[in-house]
Amino acid sequence: MVYILSGVSGVGKTTIGLLLSARLDLPFYDADDFHPRENVEKMAAGNPLNDEDRATWLETLAEKIQEWNANGGAVLACSALKEKYRRQLQTIPEKELQWIFLHSDYEVILQRLSNRSGHYFKPSLLQSQYETLETPEYGLHINVDKPEENILEEIMQEVKKEKPEIGLLGLGVMGKSLAVNMASKGVHVAVFNRHVEKLEVDIAKNFAAEYAGDFSFPWFDDLSSFVKSLSRPRNILLMVNAGKTVDIVIDGLLPFLEEEDLIIDGGNSHYKDTSRREKELLKKGILFLGAGISGGEEGAKKGPSIMPGGSKKAYDRAGKYLEMIAARDRKGDACCAYTGPEGSGHFIKMLHNGIEYGEMQLIAEFYHYFRFAYNFTPEKISAIFVDWNKEMRSYLLEISADILLKKEEEGFLIDKILDAAKQKGTGGWSTNAALELGVPFDTITAAVMARNISAIKEEREKAAWLYHNPSAEKKTQQQNFSDLFSAYKSASIINHAIGFSLLSAASKEYDWNLNLSEISRIWTNGCIIRSAFMEELIKIFREVPDENLLLHPKIVQRLKDYRGAHRLVAREAIEMGFPMPVLLAAQIYFLGYTSGQSSANMIQAQRDYFGAHTYERTDKPRGDFFHTEWKPEL
C-alpha cells in the first residue's frame, strides 16, 4: 500500500507523513525532493510552477510509486492539487493507493507558512495554490487544525478500519475507571476530555499515555475529531457532572451526530432531565439512554452496578457493552439490565443513593454512640462492625470497619476528620420525589437532614456550649449487645422498605412497570448498598412484587423479634442525649405504619374547621365526603 498525503503547502504533509510512516513502519518520501533543480530555483524566486514544469516531476513520481509498491509500500507527501495530477500518479491499483487529503482554512495555513523558515516555498505562493486546488471527492479528508497526535490517530483509525465501538466523554475518576474497564474487556474505546489552559490540560493525552503499555486509547480534545473517529452508528458515553453541563455537552455534540447515533448519560442526572432529553433527542433521530452507575472508583474499574433506562432500542444496541463491564451476581449474570422507559434508570439510581444515605447515617450513628456514650476505641468499634458483618455482609459496614482502623501518626484518622458532611443532590432529590408522590420517606429524609445539620459546624458548637447537657457525659456499659445489633438490623430493614416503597409508587405513577426483584439483583454486587439482605430481596419481591416489604411474612416475624430492642436502644439514646435520627425515624415510621388508628382524624377535623376541606367518615362508605360547622353557636 502506498499512502499519499496531499494538500497545499503548509498543511503538514511532511510532519504527518513522517509520523504515519513510523507508525506503519514504511519508508517516507517527500515529493519536493524529486523536483528538478530548475523547478526548485523557480519556486525559490517566488514564481509558481505551471503544468509544463510539473510534467517531468509527476512522471518521476509515478514511476517511484510503482517501485515503492512493489517493494512493500511507502508514505509520500505530495501536494497533488489538481485531479489530473492525481490521475497521473494513480499507476497502481486503486485498492493499493490511499489518498489522504489534509486541509484547513487559508488564514491558518498562511500563519503557519509565515512562521516557517529555511524552506524555499514562499508564503506569497499560497494563494495561487488555493486557486489551483481541486478538492478530491474521494480518499480521507482530515482537518489539520488540531494537535499532530490527534491527526495521526484519526488517520490510523480510518486506515486500519478499526474504529472504536464506543466513545467515552469525560475523564474524571469514574470516566477513567470505566474506560479501563471497557478496554480490559476487549472493547475498543476512544476517549475525550476538553482541553482548557491552566484548568484541564492534556487530560485525554496523559490518560492514554498512562495506559499505553496495556491498552490503546485513541484520545481527543477536539469534539469533531472524536465523533468522527467512532464507528457508525455511534455510541457515546457521557461521564460529566449532572445538570446544565450535560445539556451543554449534548448541544456541542449535536452538529457532528447523525440519525441513529446514541448518547448514554452515565452520570447522576435527575430523572426528569433524562426524560426531557430523551424526548428532545428523539425528534432529531438521536437515541438516548440514562444509565445510573454505582460502585465508586473501584466499582467502575472492576465492575459496577448499572441501571439503564430510556429507549429500549438504545439498550438493545448498547446493552452488550454495559453488561460486559458490569459486576456479576452469584450466578455470574451481569448486575445490569434494562430497567424501563424514560428516566427510570436515573430514578432507580437516585433511590439507590437515597437508601445509601440512610445506611451510611445509621452506621455513623452507631459508631458515634459507641465512641462517645460507651467510650469505646475505634479499634473496638471496628471489631463490633466486623462481627456484625458476618451476618450482614454489607459493603458499607465492611468499609466502616476498615476506616476505624486507619491511623495517622499516633492517632486514629477518624478523630481528625471534621464532622461536617454534605449531600450532592441525589438524597435531596429522592426526598422531593417522595413528597411529589405522597410516599412517607422518614429514614432517608432524616439522613439528608442529618447531613444538613452537620454542615453548620460553628453554629452547633455554639449551641453545644449554651445547652451543655450533663446526661451526655454519662457512660453506659449495661446495654445488651444483641439488642444493639437487633436495633441496627431493624432500622436497616425499615430503611430498605421505605426506599423500595418509593420505587413501587413511581412505577405505578409513571407506568414504568419496574421489576423490584430484578432491581434487587442488580444491587447485589458492584454497588454501594450491596449486602446479604439485598440477596434476600430478590426472592421476597419475586413472591410479593406489589406489596410493601414490611408485609412479607418473613419480614413481619423478623421485625416482631427486633422491635423491643429497637425501642429500647432508641429510648436509651434519647435519655443519654445522643442524636440517632435514622434509628429514631425508622421507629417512628414503623409505629405509624403499624398503627391501625392514627391521629390523622384530628388533622382532617382541623382542616375542615378552618378551611372546609371536608372529611370521610368511618361509618360511611369510602369516597363520601362531609363538612361540619364546627364553631359552637353562641
Automatic annotation (TrEMBL):
This entry's Gene Ontology molecular function terms read: ATP binding; gluconokinase activity; NADP binding; phosphogluconate dehydrogenase (decarboxylating) activity
What top-tier enzyme class does this entry carry?
A: oxidoreductase
Describe the reaction catalysed, as an equation: D-gluconate + ATP = 6-phospho-D-gluconate + ADP + H(+); 6-phospho-D-gluconate + NADP(+) = D-ribulose 5-phosphate + CO2 + NADPH
What's the Enzyme Commission number for this chain?
1.1.1.44
Which pathway does this chain act in? Carbohydrate acid metabolism; Carbohydrate degradation; pentose phosphate pathway; D-ribulose 5-phosphate from D-glucose 6-phosphate (oxidative stage): step 3/3
One Pfam family linked to the record: NAD_binding_2
Q: Which SMART domains match?
A: 6PGD
GO BP, sorted A to Z: D-gluconate metabolic process; pentose-phosphate shunt
UniProt keyword Transferase, yes or no: yes
CDD domains recorded: GntK
Q: Which UniProt keywords apply?
A: ATP-binding, Gluconate utilization, Kinase, NADP, Nucleotide-binding, Oxidoreductase, Pentose shunt, Transferase
Q: Where is the 6-phosphogluconate dehydrogenase C-terminal domain?
A: 345-631
Q: How does it assemble?
A: Homodimer.
User: Which family is this sequence assigned to?
Assistant: Belongs to the gluconokinase GntK/GntV family. Belongs to the 6-phosphogluconate dehydrogenase family.
Its annotated function is as follows: Catalyzes the oxidative decarboxylation of 6-phosphogluconate to ribulose 5-phosphate and CO(2), with concomitant reduction of NADP to NADPH.
What is the designated name of this protein?
A: 6-phosphogluconate dehydrogenase, decarboxylating
Gene name as annotated:
gnd
